[in-house]
Amino acid sequence: MKVLFMDDEADIRELIEFAIMVEDDIDATFVGSGIEAIDLLKEEHFDLLLLDVMMPPPDGLEVLRVARADEKFRASTIVMCTARTSSEAEEELRKLGADHVLHKPFKPLKLAEFIRSVA
Amino acid sequence: MLIAEYFPGLEVRRGRSFSAGFPFVMLCITIIFLAGAFVLALADYRRSEALMQQQLRHFAELLSQSLESSLSVASVKMGGLLDDFSYMPFEFRGNIDGIYGKQLRDTVINIEQIDSLLFIDDEGTVIWATTEPLVGINLSDRSYFQDAIGLPRGAFTVGKPIVSRGTGRRLTPIAWPITGWSGDVRGVIASSLGENYFQELLSLQDFDGDMSVRILAADGSTAFSAGPEAPNSPSSSITARRSLDNLGLDVQISLSRSSALQSYWQRTIAFAIVAAVLFLTVLISAVWSRMQSVRLAASLDRSEIDRIKIETAKREFDAIFENVGDGLVVFDDAGALRRSNRAARRYLGAEDDEIAVTRIRDLLPPLNDMPPGNELYKVKLPVRSLEDAHKTIQCRVMKLTIYETAIAYCVLEDMSAEERLAETRMSFITSVNHELRTPLTSLSGALDLLRDRFDYEIPPGAKKLVNMASRNADRLLVLVNDILTLQAIDHQQLSIHREPIRVSDALSEALTTNAGYGLAHDVHLVATSLPESDDPFLFLDRVRLQQILANLISNAIKYSPSGSEVLIGAHVRADDVRFFVSDKGPGVPAKAIHRIFERFGEPIHSRDVQAGGTGLGLAITRELVSRQGGKICFDSFAKADGVQDSGTTFFVTFQRHDKMELKTA
């Protein structure tokens, strides 16, 4: 399962990488900016996208829009990561095409389990 | 004095100090009055005395004139008789009575001044007398005879008074010489002036009975005296004299001072009484008005103090009124009362009271329509300045009716001030938390990974430290998350995803999730199972329900004595389900019951009992329960209140899903 993880916090990316490294069934790619992500989306296909919402532009929402506009990600699961817990914000994300909303902070060790459950 | 202390600048005039001279002035006036009265009385006395003296002199003059004229008239009348005797040859001595008797008797009858007659020859022998026994007596030794015998024709002499042997009355002799044509003295006709004669003269003069009248002969003997016995001492009487030198008589009239000045004394006493009464009246009114003025001055002082007090109070009130943070506007129906303070004028953008009142009245319903008492109005103020731009002003109006006039007291409160402050505080906390959360997440995650992946490589000593770091990172993370959750709740931003949840599932999930925490605290978590037949659904957010139960269970475990049990379960009732979490902990002391759900409240327990935590757990729990339409309450028996078998049971009640649907259907 190919997974794209986008977060501007290098530490978080590193931690997740460290946590998921041992999971053989998950092949994760990590990007630190929206530009990188959008570039990568053009070339590669991912089964699951974990996108941080709050980032310097282009942010998670921009990437979400790009992904949803792309025919090859139609079947992919897109999870938006956000610290905002309001129901309105969540509703908004779902309207834009997110399949799930993952509340930050989450435990890196539990992420693999989460990925399997939503994929 | 209190006043002087309070108003050091105030000089209170003392009534006593400026009235000290008053009795002295009164005394002086009294002395002057008495002296004046005395001088007046003395002058009057002198005048009265002089007047009386003059009067007496006048009486003496009158009396002596009438005496003189009376005697002259008598003398003239006697002239005829004397003339007859001048021609008469004295040979007929033996038959005097036959020749002259009738003439002599007629003289006594006709001349009133003459009441007796003696016809004495030149040798002093009485040859005829109206009083028969005197005939033949020789009177040549009498001075009046000797005086008269030497007198010219027509003259007469008045002799020394003698006391009549027969009647005991005084008689003053009067004698005329009988001279012949050739100048030879033939004898003397003598008579006497009796007291009745003088009395008659006196009665013609209208004399005062108080006067003492004396007629003295030349030798000082009394010829006549009338009235009271004249006092001898000249100091006690007033005397007037008139001498009749040709007659050898002296008229003396005197009056005792007491009776002479009787009218003076009467007048003076009457005057003194009237004057004294007047003076006393004036004096008393002066003293009285003096007292009044002192009293008035005192009350003026008092009212001055009162005025200063009132003014001070007014100034204090004005200062408070003007500078209080809330806007105040007071106005009445009649338009007589218009008052506003600085804050109100700023809120209303008014330059003066009148504009402020007009503007607030435009914003409020008419005064007549307002109910009496307190009323709250949300007021939308037009934006007048940048700093007021986002203010919400609340107007509290109290309507009072005083003397049939409705008065409105408006308090303008800036509601947004507090809201803004709370918001600022919260947004600060939120931003801090967001900033804290990212590194904390990394820290906590890194530590978790370290323990998970390198468990065997970490030396036992280091592992202890790693665990400690991990535990504290988690604790910090929980706190940060709790705060963010509460903030979401406060801003109505908490997402709630309701789904049907079976009660038994919720209980078993809570048991599994929290059993580990229990084990760590050596507390056994026990769930009472539900009968399968009665296991209803609830329509709640699964995650939030677990959060509620986890909070209550972790609290129960934290406070349970080691080795004890924490009992969880649910009572299924007709309309609702009541979860419970029961522990054998120290209980909630009675004094803390009311603040157990407060955020960051004071510790509930004493230091040795209090367990660590964020201080937000129960606050969040209550919010989560109420946001899902549930209720939370608890029963507690606290050691601190003296209960041996202590413990706490929390109850959380939710509507049953099946019943809920029934109701909505």
UniProtKB/TrEMBL annotation, chain A:
The keyword 4Fe-4S does not apply. GO terms for biological process: phosphorelay signal transduction system. It comes from the Bacteria. Keywords: Phosphoprotein. Transmembrane segments: none annotated. The modification 4-aspartylphosphate is found at D52. Residues 2-119 form the Response regulatory domain. This is Response regulator receiver domain-containing protein. It comes from Palleronia pelagia.
Automatic annotation (TrEMBL), chain B:
GO terms for cellular component: plasma membrane. It is an enzyme of class 2 (transferase). It comes from the Bacteria. Residues 431-658 form the Histidine kinase domain. It catalyses: ATP + protein L-histidine = ADP + protein N-phospho-L-histidine. Keywords: Kinase, Membrane, Phosphoprotein, Transferase, Transmembrane, Transmembrane helix. Its EC number is 2.7.13.3. The keyword Kinase applies. PROSITE patterns: HIS_KIN, PAS. GO terms for molecular function: histidine phosphotransfer kinase activity; phosphorelay sensor kinase activity. The chain crosses the membrane at residues 20-43, 269-288. The keyword Coiled coil does not apply. InterPro entries: HATPase_C_sf, HATPase_dom, His_kinase_dom, HisK_dim/P_dom, HisK_dim/P_sf, PAS, PAS-like_dom_sf, Sig_transdc_His_kin-like_C. PANTHER family: OSMOSENSING HISTIDINE PROTEIN KINASE SLN1 (PTHR43047:SF72), TWO-COMPONENT HISTIDINE PROTEIN KINASE (PTHR43047). This is histidine kinase.
